[in-house]
Amino acid sequence: MPTNTASVPAPNRLRIGSAPDSWGVWFPDDERQVPWERFLDEVAEAGYDWIELGPYGYLPTDAARLAEETGRRGLKVSAGTVFTALHRGPGVWDETWAHVSRVAELTRAMGAGHLVVIPAFWRDDRTGEPIEPPHLAPERFRDLTAGTERLARRVREEYGLDVVVHPHADTHIATEEHVTRFLDATDSSLVNLCLDTGHYAYCGGDSVRLIETYGERIGYLHLKQVDPAVLADVVRDGTPFGPAVRQGVMCEPPRGEPALEPVLAAAGKLDVDLFAIVEQDMYPCPPDRPLPIARRTRHYLRHCGA
């Protein structure tokens, strides 16, 4: 493990946390997921101070109750998360806002400052079957960028939260080409990026190069790695993301790619406060698997200076 941490951001600039995703949680309610009480107990036990809300409805949605449950475990909330299909145009706005406003209200009530926005999958998230073309036509791309700016403006005005868009496998913002096109087409005063190192590597991107090129647009980090051998099989076979996760494509650091030390060093050079939330997609997983991984990952990140 690395011992030279001089180029890695100081702890007061990088706030390390974890998320329900690292406990195999993808849905508000699923019998294959650990109960939310166990997640909160174990994420605190593993040494994390910050968490994300995860899928809305997994954790209690009553702010007073959630504040009591997190507070007595020494946990704080960094962000809420929403999925949106803004590329489908103004016709989806009302439905989108109804969901976003609920999540944003709880996020603000918990003292968090970010809303992570994930584009809708072009494949069904349970079956993996294609439901849309994988590439956006120009008019749909314009709907995506305009809708995201509209959403970010309203979220900031009404809830005081910053929108960070999360490039994600099997969505229309996934590859390096997608990401740079999206950033170039959106207002940096409204829309920034949640860089997920694992998803970006999954789709062929270089996280360090993205940070060095678009550093002013990096508003939030998800720390994650992919297993290159499994990824090679996934790419060869065209495997959808859900089955790829079940094959183990996302792996425990430092066993995969990208190497996190250079990512942390590049983030440190930005000289800004950043949340860095550990995620390891592994839905579904045995209930006793997440905690040991979470402990080891937190220990590893401390050795990286984070």
UniProtKB/TrEMBL annotation:
InterPro entries: IolE/XylAMocC-like, Xyl_isomerase-like_sf, Xyl_isomerase-like_TIM-brl. It holds the Pfam family AP_endonuc_2. Residues 40-242 form the Xylose isomerase-like TIM barrel domain. This is TIM barrel protein. It comes from Streptomyces chumphonensis.
